[in-house]
Amino acid sequence: MITCIPDRDIERFIEEDLPYGDLTTHLLGIGESSGQIIFSTREYTTLCCTEEATRVLQKCGATVTSCLPSGIKLAPGIEFLTAQGNARSLHAGWKVALNLLEYASGIASRTQRIVEKTRAVNPALSVVTTRKAFPGTKQVSIKAILAGGALPHRLGLSETILVFKQHTAFLGGLEAFLGTISELRSKARETKIIVEADTGAEALLVALSGADIVQLDKLAPAELADTVRALRKANPNLLISAAGGINESNAAEYAATGIDIIVLSSVYFGKPADIGVIIKPV
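-> C-alpha cells emitted (282 positions)
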C-alpha cells in the first residue's frame, strides 16, 4: 500500500482538534485514569487509514495493542484497532482517528464495491479515479482508492498527457490538433497520449490519429457500446476509457460496453463508513 501520510499532517490533524488541551476531560478530573479504546465495524467495510489512526493514538500518548491493515474487507461487528492509555490520551486521539477511519474507509468501501461489480462483468477492466478529491485530502483519498482496488487516473498535471477541448481550443480545434500527434509523441516518447472526445464522431477521429487512448465523456451506455464497436474496427490497438457521471449504480452497465478503462470521481463523495468506538476504564 503506497501513501503513508507524513507526520506533519498527522500532527496538524491533532492540533486542529486539540489546540489547547481537552477542557472536558480536564474539568472532570479523569485524565490520569487508565482505559482502553476499541474501534469496530458496524457494516461491511473496506478498511483504510488504520496505520494513520494508530499514529494519531500513539502521538496522543496511547499504546496500540492491535491493528488490522488497510485494504482488508470486514463484516459488521469486527474489532480492528485497540489501544490502551490514560483517559487524556484516549480522548485526545479518539475523534481524529475516527474521522480518518470513517472518511477513508467510506471511499475505500465504495471503490471496492464498484471494482467488484465492474470486474464481474469485465474482468480486464481498469478502474481509475480522477484528481477531483476535495482539496487537502489527496493523500488520504489516493490511499483509500488503492485500498479499494482502484488506481489513480492522474495524480496531477505533471506526469500525464490528457488533451481536452479546453486545450485544442487554443490549437485550432480537435482536427487541427490531431494532425500534430506524431510531433507530440516525439516530445514525450515514454508517455501515453490520451485525447478526450465528446461524441462518437470525434472518437473516430482520435482513433485514426495515432493517439494511445480515447476518453469518451458523458456518453450514455447504449451509445457508448455502439461507439466502442466502431472504434475497435477502426483501430484495434486503441484503448478506450469512459468518464463522466459513472457511479456505483451504473458502473456495471458501463463496464458491459466493452471499454478498457472506467474513470470516475464518485467514490470520493458519499457516506463515511460507520465505525463504532468504545472507550472504557481498565
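The first strand starts at residue 34 and ends at 41.
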